[in-house]
């Protein structure tokens, strides 16, 4: 048996190193239209623990008092006082209105917690597949953008703040024309932001200041 000679192939260019492998186009720029990524939801452990603790204490106190009454003992003084106040105090009383206002505020607060995801310090990343989610901390994103800003010639110091819809970058310029530095800095930050593959890329706002001393 003889092996057929393979057809000669054209020269192939060496691929980029592993740490410089480019990301897929749908993750580098533009919207991922196939899979929509949402911000992760907070577990709300502290509010849930507070509400559960209050309900547990009130339920245990009421249950102990009911059991004591069923056993032939008189009702607790706090329950008799509470029942008397609720039966005799008018609705336009200051304490009744204050208690109603506090209960309404707490109820609205719990509803807002239930309907909002929370975790505003985390930025969701675009996902190439359903069920796969990742997030980036705002401080981490700010550090990456600040490191990229410091690589721009002419920039001596840089401060970057990352928000949900906007990135504010302030830089001090020691040499070069400030407008050229601003243009280069905007281009570098735009490129670095695209590398973060954020689900909702924020807008870049750059401000430079000339420092002569």
Task: Please tell me about this protein's structure.
This protein is α+β, with helices and mostly antiparallel strands and 213 residues long. The protein contains six helices and five strands, in the order ααααββαββαβ. It has helices spanning 25-28, 45-70, 77-88, 94-115, 138-150, 178-195, and strands at 122-124, 135-137, 155-162, 166-173, 203-210. The strands form two sheets. The protein has a three-stranded mixed sheet with strand order 3-4-5. A two-stranded antiparallel sheet has the order 1-2. α6 (178-195) links the parallel β4 and β5 (203-210). α5 (138-150) crosses α6. The longest helix is centred in the N-terminal third of the chain and has 26 residues, at 45-70. The chain is elongated and about 90 Å long.
List the helices and strands and how they pair.
Layout (H helix, E strand, L loop, with lengths): L24 H4 L16 H26 L6 H12 L5 H22 L6 E3 L10 E3 H13 L4 E8 L3 E8 L4 H18 L7 E8 L3
Helix pairs in contact: 5-6
Share of residues in helices = 40-55%
Q: Which strands sit side by side, in order, in the main sheet?
A: 3-4-5
Largest sheet: 3 strands, mixed
Helix count from the secondary structure assignment: 6
Overall mean pLDDT stands at: 79
* Gap between N and C termini: 81 Å
- Class inferred from helices and paired strands: alpha+beta
The global form is elongated
**Share of residues in strands:** 5-15%
Low-confidence stretches: 1-35
């Amino acid at each position: 048996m003889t092996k057929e000679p393979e057809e000669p192939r054209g020269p192939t260019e060496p691929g980029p190193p592993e740490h410089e492998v480019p990301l897929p186009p749908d993750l580098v720029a533009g919207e991922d239209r196939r899979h929509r990524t949402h911000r992760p939801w907070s577990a709300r452990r502290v509010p849930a623990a507070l509400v559960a603790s209050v309900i547990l204490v009130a339920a245990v106190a009421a249950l102990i008092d009911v059991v004591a009454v069923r056993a032939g003992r008189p009702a607790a003084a706090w329950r008799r006082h509470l029942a008397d106040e609720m039966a005799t105090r008018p609705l336009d009383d200051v304490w009744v209105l204050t208690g109603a206002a506090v209960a309404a505020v707490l109820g609205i607060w719990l509803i807002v917690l239930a309907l909002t995801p929370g975790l505003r310090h985390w930025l969701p990343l675009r996902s190439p597949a359903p069920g796969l989610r990742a997030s980036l901390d705002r401080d981490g994103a700010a550090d990456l953008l600040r490191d990229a800003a410091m690589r721009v010639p002419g920039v001596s110091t840089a401060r970057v703040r990352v928000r949900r819809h906007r990135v504010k970058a302030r830089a001090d310029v020691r040499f070069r024309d400030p407008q050229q530095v601003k243009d280069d800095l905007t281009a570098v930050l735009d490129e670095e932001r695209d590398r973060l593959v954020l689900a909702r890329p924020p807008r870049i706002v750059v401000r430079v200041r000339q420092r002569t001393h």
